[in-house]
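Appendix B. Chain record.
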Amino acid sequence: MNDHNARPSSVATDDSTVVAASSAASHRSASTASWHTRPSESETGTLERPPVFDGGDPEKSSSWTLSSARSHCTDGPPDLSTTRLCFAHIGAAMTLFLATTDSTVVSTSLPTITSDLHASHNQYTWVGVAYLLTQTACQPLYGRISDLVGRKCILYCSILIFALGSLLCGIAQNIIWLIAARGLAGIGGGGIVSAVWIITAEIVSEQKRAKWSQALSITWCCSAVAGPLLGGLFSTTKSSVVSWRWIFYVNLPVCLAAVLVFELSLRPVRLGPSQTASWRALLRRFDFLGLVLFVAGTSMIILGLSFGSSSGWTALSTLLLIIFGGVLLGTGAVYEIYTKRDALFPPAAFKDRTAVVILIITFLHQFAFNAGTFYLALYFQAVNGATPVGAGLLMLPYSLGSSLISMPAAWFIGYRQTRFHNTNGQKWVICLGLAVSTLGFGVMCLLREGCPKYVQVLCPLAAGLGIGMLFHAPHQVFTRALQSKELATGTSAFFLVRFTGATVGLAASGAIFDIRLLHLLPPGFTMGTHGSSLDLSGLRSLSPLSRKMEVLHAISQSIRDIWFVCGPCLAVALVLSLFIRVVSTQDDQASNSKGQEISTTSVPSAFCHAPANDSKA
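C-alpha cells predicted for this chain:
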C-alpha cells in the first residue's frame, strides 16, 4: 500500500488494516532499533554495536547518536522466517480476536446475564459500556508507554490484565461486580489491540505489510460476526456446568496459548524500549489534562443518560451530570487548541472543514452501529422469543453484511484512486454508505412483534451494508486533511472519537429504551420480580396472552424508538458528507518520505499513522 500504484486488491478493508499498515512507518525513527535479531555467540565479536541499547548506555559512545541510529535502522525489520512470522500472526490473531470479540460477545447473552444477576434496565447497557469506556480512556497512553517499557512488556501486561478481568467476570456474583470486572478487562483489551498492531507491523517489511495485515483484518471482521454467535451459544446451554460465565472463562486458556506462541515465535527479536523515549518526556509532553477533560466529560454525560432513565430527566443529578459533562468537553476543546503539549487533537481537527466533518460522521456512524449490535439482539430474544444462539444467527445479516461489504468498498476506492488520483472514490463510498445505512435504520422501524421473516432479514441487512461501507474510507479522508507532522496525533484522535461514539451510542440507546419502556408498559407491571429487571424467562411464560402481547408491543416500540434516533443521526451525517472536499493524491510519494520521519515519541497512541500507507489504499 505504500506504492503509488498499489493494486486495489491490497486495499485495507477496515480500520484494523489501516492501523496495521501504518504502525511501523510511524515508529521507524525511534523504535526500529529494536528490530534486529539476536546474534549467535560466534557472531557477537564481529558485529557492530547494534542501535538497540537493552541495558546499555548509548551515551557512552559518541559514535552512536540518534541520527546514526536512524541511519542504521533503514535496513528494516528482522529477517524472520516465514514460519516464525506465521506463528507470530497466529498469536496476534488469537489475542486480537479475544479483545475485539469481547466488546460484542455480550450482546446476545446480556438478557440471560441480567436475568441471572437481577440487573436493572440501565445496568443492562453498562456491561457493554464499561468495557468500551475504559478501553477508550486508556488508548492514547499505550503507544507512549510501549516506547518506555517495550512492546512485549506492554502486550504481556495487557493480556494479564485482560485475563484477570475475564476471570472476575466469570465468577461475578452481582451486576456491580460484573460491570467493574468488564471495566478492568477493557483496560487490558485496549492494550492488546494497540500492542498487537505495533508488533506485527514492526516485524514485517514494508513491502509485505499489506499482505500480512490482511490476516488480522480478517480476524477483526470475524470477531464482529462470531461475537454474537458465541455469546448466544454459551447462554443457550442449560447445563449446570457450562453457562454464560464460560463466555469469559474461555479467554483464559486462549490468553495463555497466545503468550506462548508469541514468546516462541518472537524470541529472536528484541522489542525493547526506545532509546529516545523517557518517563520525563512523557510527563512533560503528553496531554494528560486534555485526556482527563475528554474522558471525564464523556463519562459524566454517559452517567447522566443512565441516571435520566432511572431518576428522571428533570432530576437534579441528571441535569448536573449532563451539563457539567458538556462544559468539560467544551473546555477540553478550547484547551486542545491552545495547549503547548502534544495535544490529543491536531489543529486541523478544529480548523479544517473536511476533518471536522469526518470526525462528526465517525462519531455518528459508531453511535448507530453499536446501538444496532446490542438492541437488535435484544429485539430477537425479547420480542421474537429467539434463544440466544438463535438471536446470534438472526444477527448475521447485520454483522456479516457489515463485514463483507467493506471489501468491495475498499476495491472501489482503490480503483477510483488509481484511475483518477483523487479522493472522489472515498467520498462516493462515504455518501453511499450513509445513504444506505440511513435507509436501513429507517426500514428497521418495521421490525415489530410478529413481522415476517424476510423483513427480519432484509432490514438489518440494509443497515449492515451501509454501516460496513464506513469502516475505512473516513479515515483515509481524515488523514488527507492533516499535515504530515499531524498524522500520528490525528490518527489517535480519529480512533478516540470512534471508540467514544461506540460508547455513547450504547449508553444513549439504553437510556432511550429504558425511558420509553417505563412509559409504555401496562400500569403496575414490572419486567420481572426484581424491580425493573429484564426477565425474559418470565416474559415467555406471561399470561394471559393479551397481557403478554401488550408487553411485547411495549418492548418492540421502545427498541423501534432507538432506530428513530439512529436514522436521523445518520441522515445528518449524510448531509455533512456532501461538504467533504475532494483532493488530489498525486503527492503521495512526497508525503511518504516525510511520513517516515515521524517519531514514536510524538505519537500519543498506538494508532499511529504514516501518510504513505493510508493514502495508498
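Further analysis of this model is presented in Appendix C.
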